[in-house]
Write a structure and sequence with these properties.
single chain, about 140 residues, alpha+beta, 3 helices, about 25% strand
């Protein structure tokens, strides 16, 4: 057996785990899935919200949300009526984070979570706040 075989095995295992974790996205019971017990996830649909929902009231603003996600470096994985799932990949190690948005009247509920690791150094919270600021800028320019 070659010395590179253990690394290949590890890489395959990590890929399988990451793929399995992506299957945990999407609404469940009409809401975004809860965050795990680790501090690498934020979600607006909690009694003690980690982050506030996003203000997006019109269809044009919803489409602007999707454009803004892409402009921020996200890759839109799935869009259906009132729901979008996007992924973001870290520059250095290539870790994947999931961003989910669900229309809820005049707001958009949001969940941003790392697929791996325990702590994300606040990356997901900052991503949601950058998205909020970008949407506010876009709304201000549209007036």
């Amino acid at each position: 057996m070659k010395a590179s075989t253990p690394w290949l095995t590890i890489l395959v295992c990590v890929s399988v785990v990451a793929s399995a974790m992506a299957a945990g996205t999407g609404p469940a019971g009409g809401k975004l899935r809860p965050c795990p017990g680790s501090p690498n996830c934020v979600r607006s649909e909690m009694p003690d919200r980690d982050v506030q929902p996003l203000a997006v009231s019109s269809r044009g603003e919803w489409e602007g949300l999707i454009r803004t996600i892409v402009a921020m470096g996200g890759s839109v994985e799935h869009v259906e009526d009132g729901y979008v799932h996007a992924t973001f990949r870290s520059r250095v190690f290539g870790f994947v984070d999931d961003l989910e948005c669900r229309r809820d009247g005049d707001v958009v509920q949001v969940r941003s979570a790392s697929r791996s690791g325990w702590w994300d150094l606040g990356v997901n919270r900052r991503r949601v706040e950058r998205l909020r600021a970008a949407l506010a800028d876009e709304a201000g320019q549209g007036r």
